[in-house]
Amino acid sequence: MKLYYAPGACSLSPHIALAEAGLPADYVKVNLRDKKTEAGDDYLKVSPKGQVPVLSLDGGGVLTEGPAIVQYIADQAPNAKLAPANGTIERYQLQEWLNLLTSELHKSFSPLFNPTMPEEAKTIFRDKIGKTFSYIDGKLAGRDYLMGSQFTVADGYLFTMLRWAIGLKFDLAQYPNLKAYFDRVGARPKVKEAMLAEGLIKAA
Fold it and tell me: Fewest C-beta atoms under 10 Å: which of 29, 113, 139, 187?
């Protein structure tokens, strides 16, 4: 497999999933502004969407949407328990989380990174993110992870966006369960491994 990524972008989520799954993969860094790979190749030939992540599969073909990619990764390493088994109610609950994260949270962050977006509009999206954080904070009461005691691919996705929130000066202290969760996920060795590989943290 080959993961096309940009450091700290939403592609960190499948990077974490691959590390947690213990699956070998090649990693190709992408400059999203220039739509070029680190080697200078035209990234639009890999993904006409021009976005990350992209997972190139060993048997041919590609996947280009984060929630689909991380579930595929989880299914390649079932013993890692990064996703419940297909057909179980727990698998649909995982998909419920992934859908919430991608539709309500991820898309609300995008305008905050747009320099042409008026500040009044950004305030609206910050408020929407805050409401979603409050909801998730409540769900995390008494839980280590989104699905309970087991880390899943949804946790890598949420952790990635919580990193964005901190960079954008969100105060996670007002969401105590979410703040503790962020620290808990960030302390996982494989999560650190993925961040270190992307240059997001320094080696201890």
Answer: 187
